Amino acid sequence: MLNSVELDNFGPLQHLRWGKLSNINLIIGANSSGKTFLLKALYCSMRTLEEYQRGNDQRTAAEILADKLYWTFQADKIGDLVTKNADSPLACKIKVDSREFRYSFGRDTTKSITSLENHVPPRTSNSIFLPPKEVLSLQNIILKSRDVDKEFGFDDTYYDLAKALRTAPTRGKNHAHFAKARESLEDMFDGKVELDSKTNRWQFKKGNQKFPIGATAEGVKKIAILDTLLGNRYLSKESVVFIDEPESALHPVAISRLIDIIVSLADSGIQFFIASHSYFVVKALYLAAQKHQMSVPVLSFVERWSADDLIAGMPDNPIIDESIRLYEEEVELALG
Amino acid sequence: MTISFVESGMSFGPYAVDEVFPIEQSPLYKHLGQGLMIAEFVLIRPGRGESEEVWVIEAKSSAPRVFGEYVDEIRQKLTNSVQLTLASCLKRHPHAADLLPARFLDLNLGACAFKCILIIKGFRKEWLPPLQSALAKEMKSLVKTMGFNPGSVSVINDDKARELKLII
Question: CB distance B131–A327 less than 8 Å?
């Protein structure tokens, strides 16, 4: 589990401290405040720790990290990630299972990270990043673009997800929480998405009917991704799941149900980091925190980053402020 | 013995006499002089388990016209009512023991939950959530400093108030 994070001069994140992390963690802020950047930075670190010493991979942690940063942020050189005009290097320090992982590099760094310290033992888990857009209908294009053409375009968050979805479903009894979550996910749209082994194409199965993935609703495809990752055992109880804008393509009712499922999966051990703009996501997580008396640390950006916890109440944030402004506008139109 | 009354076009009650503190009509409030806004009444309700809850009620028959002023007015009324109720229970005001309904004197002030509730007659349900968010935001400092639960501020309409048996 990721316990804390400290970032300095990491792109738009000049000075960020976030501790006492829990199984569900929320990041809110306006466009370009750096929410996705933060998720990606954490994802790169987690994947480095997970790929390090796996199987016969002989790469050092520094090599894995440099590769991950390069393909995730797709800058010409990783030194470009250092905050412009910063007078000190980019530095990242995280604690995972109470052990420290830290690295730093300057703006002239092309691909070799010389300062890296890792005290986290090798991990067998797989963490994943779920981007706002679904990837099922683009899976083959993403894989070709990266495996064959080696081109920028689809970053590592998309590429890793496309690869993870390729893992065949595992038969046998799944973890009880996971099995229940899959039932709930499939219930949401009264059907499930499966890979047709003959055509190697995804399709949506509803009762006896089958629909091509291109004709399937965006929200269904999005939910199907989580369902598939639980079904093929890519995710385990030690995984960290980064979700960027879970609300995209989802109806508010589906958002609330998805949050319920996330709460149940978090209870089984999976750790979630969620970046959101949505009133419904924030409110549903606030209610979950109150109902289950569960800590949900929230990092919000209003002029600067500040850390709160939804168990202690709703933090001041522009999402709520905007909902109030719209309310005022509506009352003015109706009664003014 | 019970009490019922009409406020903002809604028929409140019946409540047991010793469980309702008509704070706006009370000498405890009137002796404080003008310029202090106050809610309609305070009610003791059974809470979950064995604990009791103190509900501070403000009733309105109209929707906000000037939003910021409306929310601030409600905040002042509810905040003043919480503070005056607590101060009276602690007998900080002269004659508080004689003027407070009996059950209020037995409240476990350290343990009972406080709920601040605004009831608006005829208010459309879809308008309630943002108003609740706005009022909760305004009242956050009271909720935090008093150690109330985060969800202690509610805005409801008369349908919900009837469902809660606050009005008939």
Answer: yes
